[in-house]
Amino acid sequence: MFTLIKRNERSKKHYYPAIAASLLCIGLTACNDNDNTMMEEVPVIVEPTPEPTPVTPTEYAYSLTVTNLTYAQPLSPIAVALHGATTLWQVGQPASTALEKLAEGGDNIDFIALPDNLVTTTSEGPVGPGTSVTLDITTTEPMATYLTMATMLVNTNDAFSGLTGVDISTLTLNQVKSLYLNVYDAGTEQNSEALGTIPGPADGGVGYDSARNDIDLVGYHSGVVSQHDGLSNSILLEVHRFDNPAVKLTITRTK
Amino acid sequence: MTCTKQISIKTTITGLALALASASTVAQDLSITVTNLTQGLHFTPVVSAAHPSENNLFMVNSPAGPELQAMAEGGDISGLVSVLSSIDANINENPAGGLLAPAMSASFMLSNDTSNTHLSVAAMILPSNDGFVGLDSWLIPEESGTYTVYLNAYDAGTEANDEIRGSGAPGEAGMPVPPPLEALIGNNGTGVTDQEANSMIHIHRGSLGDSDMSSGLSDINNSVQRWLNPIAKLTITIE
């Protein structure tokens, strides 16, 4: 019926050894001009300054397995990023140009380079229907506790799947979490399905085009229509249709 | 809640203590955001309610009552609100102040009484004959936190999905066409079907649509106004 995800409010706390200010107890002796007075020697107590405790950076590592659940929609190279508490897209907001390039052309270079990203990785190539890829990502950056993953369904105009800004700080060591991911539409290109507009093998057409001729808001995709189901100008066939979910993501915290 | 009866201070204090005790254990303040996930559907005014477990706003495989039919065919939630009021539900009406446009969100607060343990939501989807987005009796968790619930599209089973311009009145054929839809859907469709064989509330099979804005079977645009489930997201933060 419906999917329920509970997101814990709690997020991972990073405790740093409090570097206590070293307390130097210096006994002060009064300077007295009176020659007749023998100065009592007060021992000056200087506690040794503690060596700063070396901060051993804690390493976190995650293994991500991305499975293509579609019939005939290869996934463009999988982009993975860890970052702080933010999202790299949002339903109801325009896509960034970096996301537009990923969603229209499968090119994740700019997306990987987004300034919010603290650590990133990508699969070397596309992930075909019925196949999986496993990516490992490791970080010592304590703020890198939010996950984003994105990939284009390449036999479409601007469909992509993924998730963004998911808090993974609550994962315990060796905990495994599986998520089924739906398909978004970047909203940057009309779903004309027309010859020359789709970069995947179904067409071999143009990927990214900077012109935005659609709603210009990210939303969920309405699915491929195809020439077999009533879109006469479509280059796509019934085999290119898909449904939600399109991707399975399994996250394992390995360190 | 207003109290008009004169009561002694002692009774008031006892009553207050009881109210506080029950408030901290069951009754909650819900901060709710409903997001239209689609890029091509409008939602008519949304009705949300916390109600007792024994009540349902709608149930799959059951026939729609006249109040649900009025909502699903024409977007009129007044009948549902009356029924919900009669069972002392906590109700929120029309948080978007009209249609909830594609990809847009609306937020509202809902405080539920202790006996109103379940949350339900409904709104008609446009363009459709009797399609609606719904949530049927979600148990409101007692633990504070932020919860995400995804909602599917249902068919009220009360009207044939002819997918052509028509009426939003219950029992009348065709789809209502309020102003934002006027320019978005086609004309002169001859009708996809005149049959509604399944009179029970069921998961909507989706619209057929066509790519012809001036003729064809359907007035629905097949590359924009179809959908895949889920079509809405509820984000519920419990204090």
Write the layout of secondary structure elements.
The complex is a heterodimer of chains A (255) and B (239).
Chain A: E1 4-7, E2 60-68, E3 79-83, H1 97-105, H2 109-112, E4 117-122, E5 132-139, E6 146-152, E7 159-167, E8 176-181, E9 183-185, E10 219-220, E11 247-253
Antiparallel strand pairs in A: 2-5, 2-11, 3-4, 3-6, 6-7, 7-9, 8-11, 9-10
Chain B: H1 9-25, E1 28-36, E2 42-43, E3 47-51, H2 66-74, H3 78-86, E4 90-93, E5 105-112, E6 118-126, E7 131-139, E8 145-155, H4 179-182, E9 202-203, E10 232-238
Antiparallel strand pairs in B: 1-5, 1-10, 2-6, 3-4, 3-6, 6-7, 7-8, 8-9, 8-10
Describe the structure.
The complex is a heterodimer of chains A (255) and B (239). Chain A is mainly β. Chain A has one domain (60-253): F-spondin domain (Immunoglobulin-like, Sandwich). In chain A, 5% of the residues lie in helices and 26% in strands. Chain A has helices at residues 97-105, 109-112; strands at residues 4-7, 60-68, 79-83, 117-122, 132-139, 146-152, 159-167, 176-181, 183-185, 219-220, 247-253. A 6-stranded antiparallel beta sheet of chain A has the order 4-3-6-7-9-10, with helices on one face. In chain A, strands 5-2-11-8 form a 4-stranded antiparallel beta sheet, with no helix packed on it. Chain A is elongated, with a radius of gyration of 28 Å. The two termini of chain A are 35 Å apart. Mean pLDDT of chain A is 87; it is low at 1-39. With 239 residues, chain B is α+β, with helices and mostly antiparallel strands. Chain B has one domain (28-238): Immunoglobulin-like. In chain B, strands 1, 2, 3, 4, 5, 6, 7, 8, 9 and 10 form a 10-stranded antiparallel beta sheet that branches. In chain B, α2 runs antiparallel to α3. The longest helix of chain B is centred in the N-terminal third of the chain and has 17 residues, at 9-25. Mean pLDDT of chain B is 91; it is low at 1-25. At the A-B interface, β1 and β10 of A face β7 and β8 of B.
